[in-house]
Write a structure and sequence with these properties.
It contains 14 helices and 15 strands. By secondary structure, it is an alpha/beta fold. Strand 4 and strand 5 form a beta hairpin.
């Protein structure tokens, strides 16, 4: 197993991702996303990357004129990563952007993508997941849908709670299925001719729901969840190590595991919960930062933000096991109202103790100087350590 900080994006990404042409209409894109059960897809025009379409944008625009709506109005620009970014960097980008798909673009062309599927595939071989239980990662407060709930109610429940699936229970509270955000796409059937890529007929086992086009319309509020839910659910009666859970989700092509007591759903762990755990390992989240010598809250907040930015950037990527960063600040009155600042910083990490100093008249500029010097010194220590390994 490999440490998450040593796993690079090039080890994780899908280098041959599914893309869709900007010449397609929304109905055709919807059909593709529904068939592949994906939540976002890159859009290209003559192989040039244009952006991405997510299921939420798709659902929002399908109810208007899907055949004539310009793709440019539906696109969003997904977060971009570098091939040398670590798995932790990718998780941080995924969580803080709120987007389901990360892309790597070079020369205007898509070189690779990272989505939940790629995170799950690598998670089963990641060291940090072999020591944490799903019991520590799973959501204990399970938000559920009842079989008789309407699709409209279910959609709003997902949106209000920022989640992508709901376990479905019967009137006795027993687990009978699961409904995901991608399932909702099946309820959005634009009335277009088959050659345009749309769907005009019914679907086996479901009721036809025509949200846009034509004279007849069924509303999502009229359709119960049980008609569209998936009846095969990945479940377990016992919690397990997170790497085993990731493997189980990958093997069963599922983005979640519902933990049950008999037939009652007690907790749920999702791909996002695993990504959240990775994001929590980011240096800016794990290192203890102490600013000694400042009393003004606004000044402390400004300096903490400087530190946070650097730890999420170049300095953070050089550190695998940061422990503590202590900065002693002396503020001496000079020239009447003006102050001169002296910063003494001490960083404890896998490279031992690193000391740097800086001084100047502008507090924020002195902090930048300290952090830049730390970045330089740690970079040299890292290079020296790597040379010894060769």
């Amino acid at each position: 197993m490999e440490n998450a900080a040593n796993i690079q994006a090039s080890d994780v990404e899908n280098e041959n991702p599914l893309t869709v042409s900007a010449e397609k209409n929304l109905a055709q894109i919807k059909a593709l996303m529904e068939e592949e059960e994906i939540r976002a897809v890159p859009v290209v025009k003559d192989e040039e990357f244009q952006g991405a379409i997510g299921y939420r944008e798709l659902i929002r625009h399908l109810q208007f004129n899907p055949k004539k709506t310009k793709i440019s109005k539906v696109l969003h620009q997904p977060p971009e990563y570098d091939e040398n970014d670590s798995l932790i960097d990718l998780a941080d980008l995924r969580i803080n952007s709120g987007r389901k798909l990360l892309v790597r673009v070079k020369g205007g062309k898509v070189q690779g993508v990272v989505g939940d599927k790629e995170f799950l595939e690598i998670a089963s071989d990641t060291e940090e997941f072999s020591s944490v239980s799903t019991g520590n990662l799973a959501s204990q407060d399970v938000i559920k849908a009842f079989e008789e709930d309407s699709l409209e109610k279910t959609r709003h429940t997902m949106l209000d709670n920022n989640i992508s699936r709901l376990p479905v229970v019967d009137k006795n509270g027993n687990l009978t299925g699961i409904i995901r955000s991608t399932d909702l796409l099946k309820a959005m059937i634009p009335m277009e001719s088959p050659d345009s890529g749309g769907t005009s007929g019914g679907r086996h086992g479901t009721k036809e729901i025509n949200i846009a086009g034509g004279d007849e319309k069924d509303k999502m509020s009229d359709i119960p969840v049980e008609e569209l839910m998936q009846r095969t659910v990945t479940t377990s009666e016992e919690h397990m190590k997170a790497d085993k859970a990731a493997g189980m989700m990958t093997d069963q092509d599922s983005g979640e595991i519902v933990f049950v007591d008999g037939k009652y759903p007690e907790s749920i762990v999702t791909a996002k919960d695993l990504i959240d755990h990775l994001e929590s390992l980011k240096a800016s989240n794990t290192v203890l930062v102490q600013l000694v010598g400042l009393e003004v809250p606004e000044e402390k907040a400004a300096l903490h933000e400087k530190v946070r930015t650097q730890l999420r950037g170049s300095l953070g990527r050089k550190l695998e096991s940061p422990e503590e960063l202590t900065i002693h600040i002396k503020k001496a009155e000079k020239d009447g109202k003006k102050h001169r600042y002296e910063f003494n910083a001490k960083l404890y990490s896998e490279y031992g103790i690193t000391n740097v100093q800086a001084d100047g008249w502008d507090m924020l500029e002195v902090m930048d100087e300290v952090l830049d010097e730390l970045n330089t010194v740690i970079g040299k220590k890292k290079d020296k350590k790597q040379e010894k390994r060769r």
